[in-house]
Design a protein that fits this description.
Radius of gyration: 22 Å
Order of helices and strands: EEEEEEEEEEEEEEHE
Strand order of the largest sheet: 7-14-8-11-12-13-15
Helix content: under 10%
Structural class: mainly beta
Largest sheet: 7 strands, antiparallel
Strand content: 15-25%
CATH class of the largest domain: Mainly Beta
Number of helices: 1
Number of strands: 15
Amino acid sequence: MNSKPSALRVILPKHSGRDVAGHVSVRHQGGRHKRYYRQIDWKRNKDGVSAKVVAIEYDPNRTANIALLQYRDGEKRYIIAPVDLAIGQRLMSGKTAEIKPGHALNLGDIPIGTLVHNIEIKPGCGAQMIRSAGGVAVVLAKDGNMVQLKLPSGETRVFQSSCRATVGQIGNVEWRNRVIGKAGRSRHMGRRPTVRGVAQNPRSHPHGGGEGRSGIGMKSPKSPWGKRTLGKKTRNRKKYSNAFILQRTA
């Protein structure tokens, strides 16, 4: 990390959904505006050093807003901005941190019933879960060195107590209610037009063909490559994290 905010931003390369050969590998991508990627501090490992919130900024690469922290030693880092975070507030990470929005602690040090986000799956690897706008989990229970969390999906899962999390709910909760407004804004965001499968010919899509509005012509929807898209379970039955899931999604 660096003391200058400009050092926390790098140009985000464009791929436009093309592979190394220039062929379309991801459909409906391309033409977006130039972006800078903001390097977010997912680990919050600067324990015992207080930081001041000097700015809350828009980030084009994610749904949540971000906050710029300036630590007592002059270093600056970006974090995901939680609800009720304001410019001028002081934040801390580690055992001495308070149970207030924006403070980061180990799950074992967070009381039951607390709202959290930015959760580590493995200790020290950095936050990997609940990082989008409005996301929040609840600390349900503690058992030895394991902590139970209720995730936004309704799933109940256990984490090691040494995994770090940030207190509070992620801000920009009303993000889902935004209106794009015009096609040009979608193009600036890098989204190209999507043609319905039923409007294509049968060679281009499984839903295509037929006279008039004939529907998809099959029992269940499929992708352009013939894979079922609704109801088929795709999770690996032998996935390592199955042992940590106490209750599946509601």
